[in-house]
């Protein structure tokens, strides 16, 4: 126990830096951007090294020693996340190897996972036979749009913008988006949908639209951002201050007995996205909405003694999945870094950052090889990356 505590405090001292850090004081941050960049590159660089050494830019699964773990298929959302990770590597280093890897990863998506005749994306392809493909899924398609927007923003290669715009113009991007547009053109009572649908895909589509707007400054894309935001504000968000994971009949949270729940980490992700959208021109009332989502997640799932956020809750403030998940911890860190950098929250964000990062150090950081690791369903250690890279990028964006 003493050894763990000593390691933790040494690491936190290195991470947060001494109290007279002029740069941190000037920018309002308690985190060292230099060490954050180092930690982020420990996640990205081994992926680059493997891809370059093997001339293979299809996304891979690795073990704790960065050896490939064989699997049968390549998921579109994972390939898209690799594009994002390499884009962030290039942004952080200005090293053209990361840009080249991003371009080749994005081209892999276009060459093997994109349907030119329909402008849609295959959710996965067989690793040994790229012609064996699965049907599109709205969650994966949202990430494809996200990746193409980032690829264009980093490279200015027009083919990536073309694919991003073609994806954006699809008529069936996501069920939630279709419902949002229907509500905008009529009202909730006259909008009918009897099937269960997921807000997760809608959230990542909102994220993708924000990335596309960043790259294009399109006023029409911005209208779609506002359409989703309005739909979430009314009628999705409940009086108690949460967004359910699944809805039925447009805006009725799916019953817990039928598999409904509140994903606490997604409350944090929605909050972050709303805050950044306000920065770009969304009505300031969405900061209030974002704050209510965060307060709900903290009230239900924050464990002060260990600095963690629990997984899922029901609609009566009861946890149904107490175990924290790694990606939610990264998103929680990212949100508090943003709030601190923007001077929206200061003292509380510093406290939550230090508590949360203590939990991350003890549970997810690989002390020997660097990067973040988790134990998978087979109890084997494997590196993870996308959410933690996004968290570190918030530090580097100061």
Written as H for each helix and E for each strand, in order along the chain, the element string is HHHEHHEEEHHHEHHEEEHHEEEEHHEEH
Q: N- to C-terminal separation?
A: 35 Å
Strand content: 5-15%
Helix content: 55-70%
Form type: globular
Helix tally equals 15
Q: In total, how many beta strands?
A: 14
Structural class: mainly alpha
Please state the average pLDDT score. 90
Task: Pick out the low-confidence regions.
Answer: 1-29
- Backbone CA Rg: 21 Å
Secondary-structure blueprint:
Layout (H helix, E strand, L loop, with lengths): L1 H15 L5 H6 L5 H22 L18 E3 H18 L2 H18 E2 L4 E2 L2 E3 L11 H18 L2 H11 L6 H11 L11 E2 H18 L2 H18 L9 E3 L3 E2 L8 E2 H16 L5 H17 E2 L4 E2 L2 E2 L5 E3 L4 H16 L5 H17 L8 E4 L5 E4 L1 H11 L2
Antiparallel strand pairs: 1-4, 2-3, 5-6, 6-7, 8-11, 9-10, 11-12, 13-14
Helix pairs in contact: 1-14, 3-4, 3-15, 4-5, 4-6, 4-15, 5-6, 6-7, 6-9, 8-10, 9-10, 9-11, 11-12, 11-13, 13-14, 13-15
């Amino acid at each position: 126990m003493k050894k763990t505590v000593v390691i933790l405090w040494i690491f936190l001292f290195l991470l947060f830096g001494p109290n007279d850090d002029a740069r941190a004081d000037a920018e309002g941050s308690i985190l060292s951007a230099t060490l954050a960049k180092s930690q982020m590159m420990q996640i990205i660089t081994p992926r680059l090294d493997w891809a370059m050494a093997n001339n293979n830019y299809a996304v891979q699964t690795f073990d704790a020693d960065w050896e490939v773990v064989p699997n049968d298929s390549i998921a579109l959302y994972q390939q898209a996340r690799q594009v994002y990770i390499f884009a962030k590597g290039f942004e952080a280093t200005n090293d053209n190897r990361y840009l080249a890897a991003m371009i080749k990863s994005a081209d892999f998506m276009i060459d093997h996972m994109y349907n030119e005749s329909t402008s849609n994306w295959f959710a996965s392809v067989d690793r040994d036979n790229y012609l064996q493909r699965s049907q599109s899924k709205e969650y994966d398609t949202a990430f494809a749009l996200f990746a193409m927007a980032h690829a264009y923003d980093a490279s200015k290669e027009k083919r990536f913008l073309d694919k991003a715009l073609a994806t954006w113009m699809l008529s069936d991007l996501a069920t939630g988006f279709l419902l949002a547009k229907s509500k905008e053109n009529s009202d909730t009572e006259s909008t009918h949908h009897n099937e269960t649908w997921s807000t997760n895909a809608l959230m990542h589509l909102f994220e993708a639209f924000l990335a596309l707007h960043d790259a294009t400054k399109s006023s029409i894309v911005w209208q779609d951002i506002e359409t989703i935001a309005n739909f979430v504000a009314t009628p999705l968000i409940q009086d108690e201050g949460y967004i359910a994971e699944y809805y039925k009949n447009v805006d009725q949270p799916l019953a817990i007995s039928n598999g409904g729940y509140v994903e606490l980490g997604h409350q944090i992700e929605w909050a972050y996205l709303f805050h950044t959208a306000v920065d770009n021109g969304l009505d300031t009332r969405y900061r209030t909405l974002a704050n209510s989502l965060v307060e709900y997640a903290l009230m239900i799932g924050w464990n002060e003694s260990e600095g963690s956020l629990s997984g899922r809750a029901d609609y009566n403030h009861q946890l149904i999945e107490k175990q924290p998940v790694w990606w939610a911890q990264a998103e929680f860190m990212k949100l508090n870094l943003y709030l601190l950098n923007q001077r929206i929250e200061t003292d509380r964000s510093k406290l939550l950052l230090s508590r949360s990062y203590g939990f991350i150090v003890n549970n997810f950081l690989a002390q020997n090889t660097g990067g973040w690791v988790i134990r998978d369903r087979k109890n084997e250690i494997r590196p993870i990356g996308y959410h933690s890279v996004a968290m570190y990028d918030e530090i580097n964006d100061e």
